[in-house]
Design brief:
Number of helices: 9
CATH superfamily of the largest domain: Periplasmic binding protein-like II
Strand content: 15-25%
Number of domains: 2
Largest sheet: 5 strands, mixed
Shape: elongated
Strand order of the largest sheet: 2-1-3-10-4
């Protein structure tokens, strides 16, 4: 599928929903530089959405991608980010409790899905249990210590009774993008990765049943005292608006249950 680009009318919808036509919303033609600390699973989605987000919120966006846990630690240490988009709602709540993020507006924007992907040329895998096959010698996952998709992978393997058995085969990525790269580059036979990074690519995959792991509830929040709070709030609201949710759905993200 070709990269999905939202039309001007949807960009206008984002602006109206996110900023509500308020006089203090970012003025058109005066973009503010905004640095977004974003979970690595969002790379493809945010790249596709960037032009419309920038127009809707009068912003000039720079994305810093990484594992949510590592980004959280950077914010705790005073990193100068203007918006935090985490793959784990718990990290956002922790930063709110620490006084680093605004409490108002902090919360979920989507639910991520875990996928079982394998390198091209490997006979297809039907499910997590196939990771025990003899021809699957290297399995990539993100580091469960600080990557939400890595924790979900650990939970799925534990639920399948394979976590201890497959330890010698595991290859840990620092974030879910790196784990996906291992599979797509042929350095791992298979991996438990973010659906958002393999959907509509040449990488073969199957969905991992959501019942095998805790929901990957992704959340965002606005750091206090950054000087870009209004624009950051606009961007977060745009992700939650109908057009933003539609764009995220193109990359396999699901809406947050109400």
């Amino acid at each position: 599928m070709r990269v999905y680009t939202l039309v001007w009318l949807l960009a206008l919808e984002w602006a109206l929903v996110a900023c509500g036509g308020r006089a203090d919303a970012p003025a058109a033609g005066q973009p503010q530089a905004v640095t977004v600390a974003a979970a690595a699973d969002l790379r493809r989605a945010l790249t596709a959405m960037q032009p419309e987000l920038e127009r809707a919120c009068a912003a000039r966006l720079t994305f810093v991608y990484g594992s949510s846990g590592q980004l959280k630690e950077q914010i705790l240490a005073g990193a100068g980010y203007h918006l935090f988009l985490s793959a784990d709602v718990d990290y956002v709540q922790e930063l709110v409790r620490a006084g680093r993020l605004e409490a108002e507006g902090a919360g979920p924007y989507a639910v991520g899905r875990l996928a079982l992907a394998w390198r091209r040329g490997l006979p297809p895998l039907q499910g997590v249990e196939d990771l025990a096959r003899a021809d699957v010698t290297h399995i990539a996952i993100a580091n469960p210590a600080h990557a939400p998709y890595g924790r979900a992978a650990q939970q799925a393997l534990t639920a399948a009774g394979l976590w201890e058995r497959l330890q010698p085969r595991l290859v840990l990525g620092e974030n879910i993008r790196q784990a996906t790269d291992y599979v797509q580059g042929g350095n791992a036979d298979a991996g438990l990765v973010a659906l958002a990074l393999v959907i509509d690519t040449e990488t073969p995959y199957v969905l991992v049943p959501a019942s095998l792991h805790r929901p990957i509830v992704q959340a965002g929040g606005v750091p206090r005292g950054s000087g870009r709070e209004e624009t950051a709030r606009c961007l977060l609201a745009a992700l939650r608006a109908p057009a933003g949710q539609e764009a995220l759905a193109r990359f396999g993200f699901e809406p947050v249950p109400q």
